[in-house]
Hints:
Elements: E1 23-24, E2 27-29, H1 33-40, E3 59-62, E4 68-72, E5 77-85, E6 88-99, E7 102-110, H2 125-139, E8 146-149, E9 162-169, E10 175-185, E11 188-196, H3 201-209, E12 212-213
Antiparallel strand pairs: 1-5, 2-3, 3-4, 4-12, 5-6, 6-7, 7-11, 8-9, 9-10, 10-11
Amino acid sequence: MPLPPGDRACPGVRSSVCIWRGKTADVKHYDNRWMRLLTCLGLLSLTALAACNPTFNWREVRIADTRLAVLLPCKPDAAVRPVALGVTPVDLHLQGCEAGAATFAIAYMNAPSGTATQATPAIPLPVLLNAWQAASLASLHASTPHIAPSRVAGAPDQPLPQKVMAQGQRADGSRVESQAVYFVQGQQLFQAVILADHINADVAETFFSGLKLQ
């Protein structure tokens, strides 16, 4: 299920994880300078060192028309692109940005009508998620990905959120790492992803633990 190339901010990567420039998202900044300073000095916690890096200016972003709130380290751009999901075209909604030589993205789509109903189970939601995963991995030329159960606050257990970690290559042959979490809420399918030459573990933990369905 290849997704459209479009006008990307991550050239050379042909997948849904690329970000198209568009309307800037409405975001809420966390600007408690004293709290940030105390944390960076080690007086509060040493578990999120990435938050002390001025390169990562974490803020809460609420994804319009969903119940999802996320933490992003930069001000995101947003766009909508039509994609083919099964036999029915749907709109792929994207928000993302770049910070610290990494791309952070949130994408979601509404499942075609009838996908999750007992009357017409044309394509079950887990099948759609798996197809999305496969398309993204194929576009990165990734092999032997590591797939494990994940957790997203507020997400249902069925289908269980999954984290997919892989190494691939860009169109120019350079190495790229990918970490993505796939999950659903109601009739909406979500992908949260980081792409970078090397993904910092603390940064990834901050990003993925900030996913919340409210």
